[in-house]
Amino acid sequence: MTSGTSNGSMSQTDVVISGVKRMLSSRRLRPGDRLPIEKDLAAELQVSRGSLREGVRALSTMGILETRQGAGTFVTRLEPAALLSAMEFWVGLQDGERANQVHTVRRALETEAAAAAAIRIGEEQLDAAERILERAHAAIHAARIDHAAAMQCDVEFHRLVAEASANHVLSALIETVSTNTIRGRMWRSIHDNEGLLATHREHLGILEALRRHDVDRARTRMANHLYAVEDYVTAIPESGLEGREADPLGALADSEAVR
After folding, report:
1. Distance between CA atoms of 51 and 55, rounded to whole angstroms?
2. Region 14-36: what's the mean pLDDT?
3. How far apart are CA 18 and CA 46, in angstroms?
4. Cβ atoms 158, 174 nearer than 8 A
5. Is the pTM of this model over 0.70?
6. Of 46, 100, 144, 258, which one is least surrounded by beta carbons within 10 A?
7. DSSP letter for each residue of 91-105
8. Alpha-carbon torsion 82, 123, 178, 170, what sign?
9. Is 167 helix (H, G, I), strand (E, B) or coil?
10. Where are the extended beta strands (E) located within the chain?
């Protein structure tokens, strides 16, 4: 994102990005506000109007600004999930040791989310979690295991726990790093029926701790669960995760159903 002449050691585009960031940090601009008109903002930031437009495009790509036809350019709601979209893209590209590191980050985040959820979760969310696990039980114990449905329930359960933490940033970060774990978790679901049953038992244990509002137990059970998943997934050879297009269940990892 460098173009045009530079202002000191910064490109003009970077000057625009830095200037808008200062306006947001100082609360001169707030979510939903309209940017000053192009001519005035370019003069204030001492950049060309072309560089200003490029900076606006970069900030729009980041999810910070949005241009509305005929109305101008506005600050978005600055929701964490939208702002982390670039990171989610990067996470989805990781493999090998970096993928293992992503799993470690996921465990750290979800363990603390479970602890926070144990304090804040309400009866409606507890009942919703129970219904999810009932669906998972049905999928696992069907005459022919419904792996896609079981995986969907797995994703929904972890998402509900993250949302029950009532920490929107934490929840968004978990959603971001979880995308890279879907393929390995699906592989385990398909190739390790005992592991699938163990996962369900662990989910039930987490739910029990949440119902008791037991912070330490919720944290410990989530950590133990994710250690088990992490150990299994990181042991899968890279060749085992190749050719997902040939596997109709592999598409689950990229579908909106698990987002």
Report:
1. 6
2. 92
3. 12
4. yes
5. no
6. 144
7. HHT--HHHHHHHHHH
8. positive
9. coil
10. 6-7, 10-11, 65-68, 72-75
Distance CA 7, CA 96 (A): 40
How many other CB atoms sit within 10 Å of the CB of residue 71?
9
- Distance between start and end Cα atoms, the chain: 29
Contact 221, 113 (CB under 8 A): no
Give the pairing of strands 65-68 and 6-7. Answer: unpaired
Of 43-52, 92-101, 134-143, least confident by mean pLDDT is: 92-101
81-120 b/e with 16+ CB inside 10 Å = b? Answer: bebbeeebeebbeeeeeebeebbeebbebbbbbbbbbbee
Long-range contacts of 28-31 (CB under 8 A, 24+ apart): 29/75, 30/75, 31/75, 31/76, 31/77, 31/78
**Quick check: 13 and 2 in contact, CB under 8 A?**
yes
What secondary structure letter does DSSP report for 8? Answer: T
What are the tokens at 200?
């369900």
How far apart are the C-alpha atoms of 126 and 185, rounded to whole Å?
Answer: 24
